[in-house]
Amino acid sequence: MVLVGFVMAMTAPIELLYAIKLGLSTAQVTVFIMVSALGAIVIDVLGTRVITRIDARATIAIGLVLFAASEGCYALSQGATGLFASRLLQGVASAAIAGAALQVSVRLHSSRPHHVLGSNQGLQLLGAAFGAPTGGIVASLLAGLDGYRLSFLVCAGLGVVVAVVAVLLLPGLPPPPGSGRPQIGLPDFAIPPLLRLALSLGLFGNYLRSGIENTALPLVGNAYGLSAANIGFALGLLSAVEIGVLALSGRLFDRIPPARCLAVALLLGIGAVVVLATVQDLRGFLVAAALFGVVDGVALSAPPVLIVALSPNASTGVATYRIACGVGSFLGSGSVNLLIAVLGAAGGLAVVSGVLAVGVVLARSTGRRIAPGFPASG
């Protein structure tokens, strides 16, 4: 999973810059940003009955090959049309890889999936921490657009290599018995109320990652006059804490029910927002970033554990969770940016606090309805 995270993050920091250098307008850049999320949501929604019914090893290999193809398309792009197509294919591939990675985790460790769901995401983040700067370093080896294209081509080659490694090292991971034939179509939305609550909690982790990590913190830091280096250091601190929390989440949930952990984490998130809004200097910014690392780690690891335990089987559970991930990411990236633009940093953060408060109520309500012994009994 470290290699998967490395490949998927390698060109992330340069893609937007590449689009701008190719002359895309502001409106076209906006479309470029959104089209990836659109591709991911389509796969997560329409592919639920596919990814749960085929071998997970094959799915992750196919996803990596598609991702490599999208990187090759980036390198060949000359304008908006090529970039939009590349971005759409990248979104499709990313959703396939993310869904397959979850399937690999729960099929390899079917007896206690809560021990691997968080650590799986942590390993991918660890790989991303090394992949993102590597892409920038490769891009700097050649001048202008040639450097960007070199980075895309190197990433494409690595994607194929990692796909081959996955096929060689992973065992066959067939779907659960009785899954049926793969079928493209809408998932079954007739789900029990408790599972519906757990799915709503699944929105929060990716809402926070897209809305806080990728949007609010950079915007607020810039508004406070912090340097790009200080903002980058704070985001690195957040990621380090988040990776640690994800790695330890399985043992944490053995001792404390995940719904209770999530409620406490979201309360901590409200505290982090207060610190960010009131202590408007580097010290407060770093403290808030570290706190958000804890919050995001729990918010990304607790919901899939709840959803898997409440689903008919683990494969169906993580596939359903992927839908919540896509919607959460889409809402986070769009709404938080708009809130800060319209209401300012303080107003936007106040609304984020309200969203977190709703999450606390939902987590407590979910926790009260779950039987004792969870998740070990699931």
Note the main attributes of this structure:
about 375 residues; mainly alpha; Growth Hormone, Chain: A; 2 domains
What is the class of the largest domain in the CATH system?
A: Mainly Alpha
Strand content: under 5%
| CATH architecture call of the largest domain | Up-down Bundle
Per DSSP E runs of 2 or more residues, the count of β-strands stands at 0
- Give average pLDDT, whole number: 83
CATH level-four homologous superfamily name of the largest domain: MFS general substrate transporter like domains
How many domains make up the coordinates?
Answer: 2
Flag low-confidence runs: none
- Helix count from the secondary structure assignment: 13
Q: Rg to the nearest angstrom?
A: 20 Å
In whole angstroms, the N-to-C terminal distance is 25 Å
What percent of the residues sit in helical stretches (DSSP H or I)?
over 70%
Shape descriptor: globular
The assigned structural class equals mainly alpha
Order of helices and strands: HHHHHHHHHHHHH
| CATH-defined fold name of the largest domain | Growth Hormone, Chain: A
Q: What's the main sheet like?
A: none
